[in-house]
Amino acid sequence: MEVLALILAGGRGSRLDILSENRVKPSVPFAGKYRIIDFTLSNCSNSGIFNIAILTQYLPFSLNDHIGSGKPWDLDRRDSKVTLLQPHSEWYQGTADAVRKNIHYIEQANPKYVLILSGDHIYKMDYRKMLKQHLETGAELTIGCKIIDPKEAYRFGMLEADQTNRINKFEEKPKQTNSDLASMGIYVFNADLLLAILRSNNIPDLDFGKHIIPSLIDTNPVYAFRFNDYWKDVGTYDSYLEANLELIETVDKIPLDMYDHNWKIYTKSEELPAVKIGSKAVIRQALLSNGAIVAGSVERSVLSPGVVVHPLAKVTNSVLLNNVQVLPGAVVENCIIDKNTIINENAFVGFGNDYTPNLENPDLLSSGITVLGKRLKVPKNMVIGRNCRIFQTADLAKAEENIIHSGATIR
């Protein structure tokens, strides 16, 4: 089957705020040693799809470096390739506009089917099953769909389908709907249909959900492919922390099996030594990545490669990215901490019972999570409250009385 996969990886990920300040959202680290885009790339590799183009835009350097030749995903073979496509002159203005601006690449590849994917979701999916249904139904467009809580409908394209799964109604991010079937942003197009639409449409911000799908429902066979397994958009601090911590549950409760030898999640790994556990370390429910050293206490947390938790330090309910250091006596609770940040002796980060929402942007942080950017140095004995956003440009040594109150934003 002649399939070209296009992975949309140009989204800014503004709701991930500090984590996407210097990297595109699909490049954000996840589950210790991985990046978010690793799941989509691994799905392609495991599904036998090796002709892949990744459409990047904002801050592509981290993503480009991570993917390289595609070797970890078996994409550097003679019969496979991964191509990184960036805007030449004008930036992408919509999901379909991104594809339209690369129409010559599609024409050159000359596939029969185009599989369009998002690079910023966490899931395991065999795309061959979706392609098989696409052929059997005679569809010209098949949309990957999942049942969700209707309260979340405003975030998704919502659709209705008949008993044969033919879609008869589609609404993009409705405020109210009776449907619970959401588009996953995964599409299989007949290539000739997709190319015809892109060539004939001059809407500047052309989007699959807003423009293309609604225009096809009544005139073309458009079908839903129902996906019933784990799938999560980790586009907010709350969903990001929740999805990471879900992976530390007991085997019978883990929603996403990362240990399935038949469906591996591949990544570009750093060459680091094995995890080291000190004689007085206390560890409960944690993911520990290569190169991590734990001499203190770690509970319900995810430690990325090279993280060091010193004696008498404590980390709880948190995600620590590469090479974070938590020095003796420091306490980290309910935090997401970006790479190479140092929490100095006896500092308390994510501390107290004051859950004042972030004053600058309460929609981003209101549940008690505190987020620290890259390469910060938290001074000795400092107290940082909850729902705080501390960007990597902040100079915490200037904080009055060595305290950052709950809800603060420091740049």
Task: Write a brief structural summary.
Helices cover 17% and strands 28% of the residues.
Describe this structure in words.
It is built from eight helices and 31 strands. It is α/β, with parallel strands linked by helices and about 400 residues long. It has two domains: about 5-245, Spore Coat Polysaccharide Biosynthesis Protein SpsA, Chain A (Alpha-Beta Complex); about 275-410, UDP N-Acetylglucosamine Acyltransferase, domain 1 (3 Solenoid). Strands 15, 17, 19, 20, 22, 23, 25, 26, 28, 29, 30 and 31 form a twelve-stranded parallel β-sheet that branches. Strands 1, 4, 5, 6, 8, 9, 10, 11 and 12 form a nine-stranded mixed β-sheet that branches. Strand 9 (about 155-160) and strand 10 (about 165-170) form a beta hairpin. It is globular, with a radius of gyration of 22 Å. The N and C termini lie far apart (about 50 Å).
